[in-house]
Amino acid sequence: MPARYVAIIMDGNGRWAQQRELDVNEGHREGARALRRTVENAVDLGILELTAYAFSTENWTRPTPEVEAIMELFGEMIETQTPDLLEEGVRMRFMGRRVGVSEELLAQMDWAERETAHNSRMTLFVAFNYGGRAEILDAAERYGGGGEEEFARHLYSPEMTDPDLLIRTSGERRLSNFLLWQCAYSELVFSDALWPDFDRADLEAALEEFEQRQRRFGAR
Ligand code: IPE
Ligand code: IPE
Ligand code: MG
Predict the structure, then answer these.
(1) Which of 7, 92, 186, 202 is at 20 to 30 A from 32, Cα to Cα?
(2) Burial letters for 176-209: b for 16+ Cβ neighbours within 10 Å, e otherwise?
(3) CA 125–ligand 3 middle distance (angstroms)
(4) Buried b (16+ CB within 10 A) or exposed e, 84-98
(5) Closest ligand 1 atom, CA of 24?
(6) What is the pLDDT, as a whole number, of residue 139?
(7) Whose CA is nearest to atom 12 of ligand 2?
(8) Mean of all residue pLDDT scores within the chain
């Protein structure tokens, strides 16, 4: 079975910049280009949902100039890329805590979601100010019993399908607080490519590795 629901931890922007003796924010800019490219490739490869980890609840602890540059780049990307994504049939959804995010960015995210709401070729979930534990805690506050399915209805994006495949780039092998609930049975693939270098061949390689896996979901 090919992977239709894919999540990516886009890691390695800092090291990519460091290797080139560039400012870390140049790495983030190149990382944004890599996301743009990956969305196009994902649509082309028949992926139905792509969930990308753009900014974690822990990333606020980075130096202020870096955080500010990421916020600015994020807004700029939404503004400039939404019209193209609309054309390409991509529906955009943002998942994460709204508290702490500027009013301007919140408005931009709402705008992009509204603009693309009727697209159905692929859904791009962007995890921004996202933490898996925060998501579970927030859901727990609203949960009134009823079991797993009912609990999942209180997650940030209840319509999101659990990922078949979770890819992490840059050679790191950890979840870093991403989709802790949803990845319970996802296949994990680790790519050594730094995120700004991640290309179509890397995505295809991850999808191929997924197809070699035998999923059991606990059954015999
Ligand atoms: C991922 O790249 C982008 C964010 C976490 C926002 P990093 O900035 O973490 O890159 P490395 O891990 O330092 O190389
Ligand atoms: C995970 O990467 C967060 C994103 C990719 C947005 P980090 O670089 O923040 O994770 P750690 O610090 O290596 O665990
Ligand atoms: Mg990192």
Answers:
(1) 186
(2) ebbbeebbeebbbbbbebbbbbbeeebbeebbeb
(3) 20
(4) ebbebebbbbbbbbe
(5) 8
(6) 98
(7) 176
(8) 98
User: Which residues are marked as active site?
Assistant: 11, 59
148-199 residue pLDDT tens: 999 999 999 999 999 999 999 999 999 999 999 999 999 999 999 999 999 9
Ligand 2 atom nearest residue 54's Cα: 6
According to CATH, the topology of domain 5-211 is Undecaprenyl pyrophosphate synthetase (3.40.1180)
Instruction: Give residue limits of the domains in the chain.
Output: 5-211
Q: For ligand 1, is residue 55 a contact (CB within 6 Å)?
A: yes
CA of 57 to the centre of ligand 2 (A): 10
Residue 188: closest CA among 179, 196, 200 = 179
Which CA distances in Å does 42 have to 59, 121, 167, 179, 199? Answer: 26, 10, 13, 19, 11
* Distance from C-alpha of 85 to C-alpha of 119, rounded to nearest angstrom: 9
pLDDT in tens, 6-42: 999 999 999 999 999 999 999 999 999 999 999 999 9
Of 111, 62, 118, 109, the C-alpha closest to 89 is: 118
User: What ligand is nearest to the CA atom of residue 18?
Assistant: 1
The alpha carbon of 11 and the centre of ligand 2 are apart by a number of angstroms equal to: 6
Q: What is the mean pLDDT of residues 140-153?
A: 98
Nearest atom (ligand 1) to Cα of 17:
14
Pairing of strands 122-130, 5-9: unpaired
Ligand nearest to the CA of 129: 2
